[in-house]
Amino acid sequence: MAFPQELANIIQKEMEKLDLKQVKIISDNITHKYRNESGKNRSLINKEVEALVYSSVRMPATYEAVSSVLDQTKKQYSKECNSLLDVGAGTGAATWAACNYFNLEKIVCLEKEAAMENVGRKYMREGHRAIQQAEWYSKDLISMEIEEKYDMVISSYVLNEMTGSIRKTVISKLWNCTNKLLVIIEPGTPKGFDVIKHAREQLLNLGAHIVAPCPHEQECRIKSDDWCHFSCRVQRSKLHKLIKNADVPYEDEKYSYIVFVKEKVDNEGVRILRHPQIAKGRIDLEVCGKNENKKMRITKKNKELFKKARKVKWGDMLK
């Protein structure tokens, strides 16, 4: 899903007010903080200029990751969602993405860092009516009580910033305020997948059902030396390339995710776990199925399946 032009324009406008050398220094500092201080319940961004720089670098990637997850979700879950709770909203990337897939009438964004909230509010003034009317609350998810329920709750790149015991409490809290869908997205790293794997186990024990990516609700079969993750391509803006000293016009955002729903859905098919390997007359796939993870070789002898397999990519379901 293409990054919204109106959002790209306002980010560009705000960033043009800053000195490029200063922006590069701030970007490097933010990267250092997230690599070394994440998961320790510390404030990582507390100045508006930091939030601006963060948004220019990370919003497109987060937007694309959330869009990819919701795209897979909609293929398995056809019901509408009219209300959204975006937790750890940052500068609002997940909300912008969700509005492309659901007819949202009520949006609530929770973000404990005031600087991030201020920038997110500023950007949303440029959006359509539902985004403009989004409610923002500068509250800590760990300590606050969420009394209202929402059709969809999105937690993107936030649970990995919490310690294990706190994370477990927050996951239960998020499930309790979910009417229909709970979407959890984390970095596509072993650590990020570990968060997803524990959330999966916890929520299945609470009676949740999986929409995606898993085609089964048994114990996860991914081995300890591997991790389940997916990838989406993100187009870099001219400014992004300057900040990162990059020549390539794109980057690949790796992410792990899981989507839960209140009632069981039809998850027929297998999930593609790696890039399909295509050779003359055959396609080799590594897949997660209902009863096993396996490698499949599909040849032209199976015309219908071969035709379908030619169209799938890493992360898709093959039915």
TL;DR of this structure?
One of its GO terms (biological process) is methylation. The protein has 319 residues and is α/β, with parallel strands linked by helices.
Q: What is the CATH topology classification name of the largest domain?
A: Rossmann fold
Q: Judging by the overall fold, what is the CATH architecture of the largest domain?
A: 3-Layer(aba) Sandwich
What structural class do the secondary elements suggest?
alpha/beta
Alpha-carbon Rg, integer: 20 Å
Count every beta strand, where a strand is a DSSP E run of 2 or more residues.
13
Mean pLDDT: 94
| Helical residue percent band | 25-40%
What CATH first level of the largest domain would be assigned? Alpha Beta
Can you identify the CATH superfamily of the largest domain? Vaccinia Virus protein VP39
Which residues sit in consecutive blocks of at least 5 with pLDDT less than 50? none
Give the termini separation.
Answer: 23 Å
Largest sheet: 8 strands, mixed
SS summary, helix count: 10
Beta-strand percentage range: 15-25%
Number of domains: 2
Order of helices and strands: HHHEHEHHEEHEHEEHEEEEEHE
Shape: globular
